[in-house]
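Lab notebook, bench 4. Still working through the backlog of constructs that have no structural model yet. Next entry is a single chain of 320 residues. Request: give me the structure tokens for it.
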Amino acid sequence: MTQQQIEYVLTLAKLGSFSKAARRLSVSQPSLSQFIINLENQLGAQLFDRSTSPVRLTSAGEAYIKAANRIKVIEENLRNEISDMGNLKSGTLRIGATMFRASCMLPKSITEFCKRFEGISVSVSEGSSGQLLEQVLSGETDLFIGTGKYDARLFDVEPLADERMVLALPREMCSEELEKSRLSDEDIRTGSMKYLTAPPVDLSCINGRRLVVCDDGEFSPDRIDSILAQYSITPSKILQVRSIETAFSFVKAGFGGSFIPDSLIRFGDFSSHPDYYLLPDSAAKTSICLVYRKNGYLSKAAREYALLLKQLVSMGTWRV
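Model written out:
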């Protein structure tokens, strides 16, 4: 496989159209078509099914893509090893995170990293935890940031920060009884004395109330259902949304309550907030982790970024 063959096939597979791929590659469509035909003749197998729109990979095409991706990873790792010898003057850093983690935890840390290491090219992959862990295993991604349980035979895991779920309620839902437990966003960000001493909220306060939950893998309805079942809570209505940020917006609009990770409050950049209440520990705590492939090559750029992220998280990335 030549670099040109890999680039042309990967681009066509990604875009599913000869015309779009030709524009992306800055070549004519007939030239691209002939290039792919010549490659297929050379291999003795058809890579693309042209009878569909968009064009699809054949079984041979899928095998080619897998091999091409492996070659790209090997080349990338070689460049990173050489970059390490040159003291991070060039190279790549590839980070995987769910959309929520990417939006809250990565912007300022990556900005700071790029200031320190201008020669390093950084890419961010967003997707589900399962998809991103597959990329870590294949070598396409250096580091994954997320929560969950990981197979110790496949991954090395470093705790990055504790994460605690809190109950978020619109201000108008705060009663005199709830006032003693009420926390502000500043309490949570700074770990104030009130945050350290506030009692867990009595979750019966959301019985018969509307509740917003999201179907993001890290904050799945199953996790919320277990909390509701544990404390015998029956909301009047459950609204399911796609992301934790959307759930947060519904709470701010006064629709109802939601369970929100404190990392959204600590690392997000929001001008207004609802009221927050601590949950009992058994329903609340988890760990945000850095995950990378066991026995894989971890570049110096990845190691430097991991160290930087730990430092920023410990002090609050919003202060950078």
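Notes after review: The chain has a mean pLDDT of 86. The first helix runs from residue 3 to 15. Flag for follow-up if needed.
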